[in-house]
Amino acid sequence: MLQHTLRPLPGRGGIPSKGAPSAIRLRKSATALSAAEVDALGFGISGMLTISDDRGYEYWAGIHGLPLPMYCTHGSPLFLPWHRAYLYFFEQYLLDQETTVSLPWWDWSAQQGIPDAYTQPTLPSGQPNPLTSAPVTGIPANQFAQLGETPIDHTTRQPGNNIDLPSAADVAGVLALQDFADFTQQLEVQLHNQVHVWVGGSMGEIPVAAYDPVFWAHHTMVDRLWALWQQANPGAGVGSVALDTPLPPFAMTVGQTLSITALGYQYAASSSSATP
Amino acid sequence: MAQFVSNPITVTLPAPTEGYQRADLAFHGVDHSKASFEGRIFFNNPDATPTTPKDQEHGYAGSFWIFGHGGCAGDEGHCDVPEDLRPFDFRPEHQLTTISVDVIVTEALKTIVKPGEAFSVSVVPWVRPEHADVLPETLVTDILHIDRVDLLTYQ
Questions:
Q1: Could you tell me the pTM of the whole model?
Q2: What is the Cα–Cα distance from A211 to B80, expressed in whole angstroms?
Q3: Calculated CA dihedral for residues A178, A165, B56, B24, nearest 10 degrees
Q4: Do B38 and A194 count as a contact with CB atoms less than 8 A apart?
Q5: What's the pLDDT tens digit per position in B81-124?
Q6: Most buried pick, A150, A269, B9, B21, via CB within 10 A?
Q7: Which among B67, B78, B146 is the top mutation candidate for probing chain A, defined by the most A β-carbons within 10 Å of its own β-carbon?
Q8: Residue in A217, A113, A107 with CA at minimum distance from that of residue A161
Q9: Contact between B70 and A75 using a beta-carbon 8 Å cutoff
């Protein structure tokens, strides 16, 4: 069984300072990825899936739910900071496998269902697509038994009708809120939770949700909305949450999640650069 | 196949009389330990069921969604939320501590409810049938628990 432990960043006290500004990654929409980018994402996830230790896919999926302990934070103002830290560390291990990859976001408000990158049986390269479903092998049978559920060995989905996904107007309404406590509550309960329920299957329950590869695209969208809100409300912070609040099991505090640039990524709609 | 059985909860509240720009229903003490579900809110329709249309004609005022914990995977006592914390117990809050949920209902309140009159608020839990079919009955039965409902309006 994989064990979850605190994971300090050696020698850096948990402060994500590595990398020059030019190394900042652009997280893109899952529907805007090129064939090469979908391949890279698939290869990265495949690489993580082959690792059974604490660099592997199942280890990171398990941090959110089973095997115990469950670390995810919901129904609290720590929801957004905790999941930003989660995505950050997951992406680092993904980058260890595929250096050109970034976590893409699934804009469910387009109401077009799960992006093709996560549903097509093969990657553009022709290899089996690991983004459609992932194995669930590291959860002790007794923990499934306590739930009264039959153990699963792969993630499943039962998506609803596209029209039942949150709309662009729903997103705009949440982004218009100006108080952090108000914003995070509505983003979590009205949008984030709704999408988990909509995807159904493994995504519909906390214990195994993060094993589904589309979990990461969903939460990258949630993180993107927080980033957009931060951009529109500079200095709004995180309400009454103390910035030095830790986010276990990650060696990161709430304050260290506030700047995505400091974490090495952006959500810009486009980017370009030139050298003289 | 599990049988989804969970009764709605209905409370009665006084409607505000003065003008307001925003109205929130705040549900406190919401349980999230079982299956994921949608809590459908209806005004002045205490007979609403999971098949009641989600439109204002039937008093539909909005929904909240609960991302359920899916039961308890630990041994006996693992999911018991402590009622009192010992001094110097700095462990994180128990994950099954009930939560508060705010739903913005401004338009529905203005449209469906007459100012100053008492009105009923019914919350109808709805578990996706595909989900209920594969979950143990204990996770989809009696899933709706709410300690208190507040109506908050803002000028």
A1: 0.91
A2: 26
A3: -30
A4: yes
A5: 998 888 888 888 899 999 999 999 999 999 999 999 999 999 99
A6: B9
A7: B67
A8: A113
A9: no
CB contacts of A160 in chain B (<8 Å) are 128
CA distance A98 to chain B (A): 32
Architecture label for domain B9-71+95-154: Sandwich (2.60)
pLDDT digits (tens, 9 = 90+) for B37-61: 999 999 999 999 999 999 999 999 9
Of B75, B131, B136, the CB nearest to A204: B131
CB–CB of A68 and B74 under 8 A?
yes
**Cα→Cα distances A42→A45, A112, B53, B106, Å:** 5, 21, 41, 44
Q: How far apart are CA A89 and CA A60, in angstroms?
A: 9
* Three-state SS annotation for A146-158: HHCCCCCCECCCC
The CATH number of domain A48-266 is 2.60.120.10: no
Domain boundaries, given as residue ranges, for chain A? 48-266
For residue B72, give the 3-state DSSP assignment.
Answer: coil
Q: For residue range A202-261, what is the model confidence (pLDDT) as tens digits?
A: 999 999 999 999 999 999 999 999 999 999 999 899 999 999 999 999 999 999 999 999
In angstroms, rounded to a whole number, what is the distance separating the alpha carbons of residues A41 and A103?
Answer: 8
Helix (H, G, I), strand (E, B) or coil at B51: coil
Distance (Å) from the C-alpha of residue B97 to the closest C-alpha of chain A? Answer: 9
